[in-house]
UniProtKB/TrEMBL annotation:
Keywords from the named record: Membrane, Transmembrane, Transmembrane helix
Entry-linked CDD domains: AdoMet_MTases
Protein name as catalogued: Methyltransferase FkbM domain-containing protein
Source organism: Mizuhopecten yessoensis (Japanese scallop)
Annotated ranges, domain Methyltransferase FkbM: 184-319
Annotated InterPro entries: FkbM_mtfrase (IPR006342), SAM-dependent_MTase (IPR052514), SAM-dependent_MTases_sf (IPR029063)
Pfam families referenced in this protein's UniProt entry, alphabetically: Methyltransf_21 (PF05050)
Length: 349
């Protein structure tokens, strides 16, 4: 029997141990790699199934849309809910678009504009001795402000016009005659009914949207106070107001106007009988998203009042300055707001 040298025996033992450990490590690593790859395969498989489900849903929606359009009676509200973008679906429409009534107004007279005459339907001059009576006799109202507005819009071809407190629509009709996009808001359904009739008579309905809402800092139901002999001076009723009330209507905030207007430059006219400051309180998004280049505001009811100081501070913070006229050569003195004109043009500096 051949005896091995003790040194050689130890050497062979080490070799065997190394080989065995190597085999064990190889098996362990191979199993570990397989276990790691398995979740990735599962994830890829799940992703592929989800994509197939999405594709199936998209095809199903397309087929449903084709069927509802060509094979079944259409339900526009349902289709709009199903296929509108998510952001549009979630947003509630607060602006009440005025659809008009069946009764036509009785008093229609010619309105003088820079682009020729167009019909304007007024209230009974006996009932409305301020604006309707003046338009009947002279065929215009605030012609200097209207002409200034038209001149500014002519110099800015892409600018749209928002008429807050449109009343019978002297500004709206003049701007529509220019061919511009107009959004007109008023609290009186009677006034909007007259304006809608005027637009139809003048073939100007295409670019004008009428909104029956009050402008304020909250969304709520409000009462309207009618002013005797001056229907255009009607306003949102305050606590303790006495007088004749019209029907309740909903108020909206200026941010809600983003539902209606197009993107781009905007000229805003505000004549909402002292509610200008309240309307501006909730207009942060409006001024952020709409490029308000000009704002023509009735200032008469804010002279020497805290509301005037708040308006000045807010509009200055949004990059607007008060000017003496549309030439924008002279800024009105901020410390003498009580002596400003009854109507002030604000422009972006």
């Amino acid at each position: 029997m051949v005896e091995l040298h003790p040194g050689r025996l130890r050497c062979r033992t080490v070799v065997y141990v190394v080989v065995i450990l190597t085999l064990i490590a190889t098996v362990f690593i191979s199993r570990l790699s397989v276990s790691r790859r398995t979740p990735r395969k599962k994830i890829k498989e799940k992703s592929r199934k989800r994509q197939q489900e999405r594709d199936y849903i998209d095809v199903t929606r397309i087929e449903h849309k084709v069927q509802t359009q060509f094979l079944e009676p259409t339900d526009e509200a349902l289709n709009e809910t199903l296929y509108a973008p998510t952001s549009r679906r979630r947003r509630k429409n607060h602006c009440k678009v005025f659809r008009g009534s069946t009764e036509g107004p009785k008093h229609c007279v010619p309105l003088k504009t820079k682009y020729g005459e167009t019909p304007i339907c007024i209230f009974d001059p006996v009932e409305d001795r301020m604006i309707s009576s003046y338009i009947r006799d002279y065929g215009t109202w605030e012609p200097d402000l209207v002409n200034m507005t038209i001149d500014i819009l002519q110099a800015n071809p892409a600018m749209q016009f928002i008429d807050l407190g449109c009343n019978l629509g002297v500004f709206t009709l003049s701007v529509a005659k220019l061919g511009r996009r107009v959004v007109s808001v008023d609290i009186l359904s009677r006034a909007l009914d007259n304006l809608q009739h005027s637009l139809k008579l003048g073939n100007l309905t295409e670019n004008v949207t009428l909104i029956l809402n009050a402008m304020s800092n909250t969304r709520e139901k409000v009462k309207i106070n009618l002013v005797p002999d001056n229907i255009g001076g009607s306003h949102v009723g305050q606590h303790g107001d006495m007088g004749q009330h019209e029907e309740l209507i909903y108020s909206i905030i200026m941010d809600d106007l983003l539902e209606i207007i197009d993107s781009g430059e905007v000229f805003v006219k505000m004549d909402i009988e002292g509610h200008e400051q309240k309307a501006l309180e909730n207009s942060k998004e409006f001024f952020h998203k709409a490029n308000v280049k000009f704002l023509l505001m009735e200032w008469m009811l804010h002279k020497g009042k805290p509301s005037g100081d708040k308006i000045i501070k807010y509009l200055l913070s949004n990059g607007l300055l008060p000017y003496l006229d549309y030439n924008l050569r002279e800024v009105l003195p901020l410390g003498r707001a009580s002596f400003w004109p009854d109507n002030v043009l604000w422009a972006k500096r």
